[in-house]
Specification:
mainly alpha, CHAD domain, 12 helices
Length: 323
């Protein structure tokens, strides 16, 4: 099949795949050299966005096995295990250590030394992966596809004709997620109710965050075809991801401390645990406002209407700068 024309479904797929693949390669040397945790972060973001592109444009693409969304997701998870360790380390050092008394800093430093050993093991695994035949196959398959792309028949269709059909299923998946109803109440929850909620429903909220991230990545691909309302709605979805992420971060940190220092770590780190507690409640207050917004019938209607009304002609594909 001939390469699709400029505004075709397939052409936009090719541009997006090339963009994120280039980003992945640009950070490869930095990750191997372990120069800066940001190199790993950006490479992982590139993998995630590439996977979102492959899923979003799936109806137009014929892909080699090494370039399927499933495989790219696996590559990203290898990077993700090291990134998780970096996030824990950076969060403790930049957000929490400056607020703690000396005695708690000393205890936390002991835990961070153990984390540093775990990081070294994960870094070894990442380096092994980036030097593996498996990763080499991914690069070879991706470059071969970019040089000679293979498409389904629908790839030649003008992308504006099918934009609502691409985006509405993703939006429906997000809006129907059960996580929206976690802790939903017209009245303010008590502190005890909130602590119970955090203990029991964190996995559901975490899954909602992943759904928001998928929607955000897909919507960002097609942002050039829409206007201000779309951009504002995209920012709201990003805020969903951010706020739930803040709630989840503290849960991850506490799980790490319990595993490293034991179940009584709260007795050794009372100041830190109080900060965790206060942060959760402040973030939850912000979250409930957004939660009510996304459960409002009129707002949900506006979301659907916006996706159904792409602009007549978009500018050249814009470059995303967010993570």
């Amino acid at each position: 099949m001939q390469p699709p024309q400029t505004q075709s479904f397939g052409n936009w797929a090719h541009k997006a795949i090339a963009k994120h693949y280039k980003k992945i390669l640009s950070h490869e040397a930095g990750v191997l050299a372990d120069r800066d945790p940001e190199e790993l972060h950006q490479m992982r973001v590139g993998m995630r966005r590439l996977r979102s592109v492959l899923l979003g444009f799936a109806p137009a693409l014929v892909l080699p096995e090494a370039l399927t969304p499933k495989q790219v997701g696996r590559y990203g998870r290898v990077l993700g295990k090291l990134r998780d360790v970096d996030v824990i380390t950076l969060t403790f050092r930049e957000r929490y250590l400056p607020q703690l008394p000396t005695v708690e800093v000393t205890i936390l430093e002991i835990a961070l030394k153990k984390l540093a050993k775990r990081r070294q093991k994960q870094l070894t695994k990442v380096r092994k992966f980036l030097n593996s035949a498996r990763y080499g196959e991914f690069k070879g398959a991706t470059q071969a596809w970019l040089d000679q792309p293979q498409y389904q028949a629908i790839a030649s269709v003008d992308i504006q004709l099918i934009l609502p059909d691409l985006l509405l299923p993703q939006l429906s998946e997000l809006l129907l997620h059960p996580g929206w109803w976690v802790g939903y109440s017209p009245k303010k929850l008590s502190k005890k109710q909130l602590e119970t909620l955090f203990a029991t429903d964190s996995p559901i909220l975490h899954d909602l965050r992943k759904a928001a991230k998928r929607s955000r990545y897909t919507m960002e691909i097609f942002a050039p075809f829409y206007g201000e309302n779309y951009a504002n709605q995209l920012q709201a979805i990003k805020k969903v991801q951010t706020l739930i992420g803040l709630l989840q971060d503290d849960a991850v940190l506490q799980a790490f401390l319990e595993k490293t220092l034991g179940k009584t770590f709260d007795q050794e780190l009372p100041t830190l645990c109080q900060i965790f507690h206060d942060n959760r409640h402040q973030t939850w207050h912000q979250w409930t406002k957004l939660q009510h917004q996304f459960l409002d019938a009129e707002y949900r209607y506006q979301l659907h209407q916006t996706l159904c009304q792409p602009q007549p002609r978009p500018p050249v594909a814009q470059k995303s700068t967010s993570n």
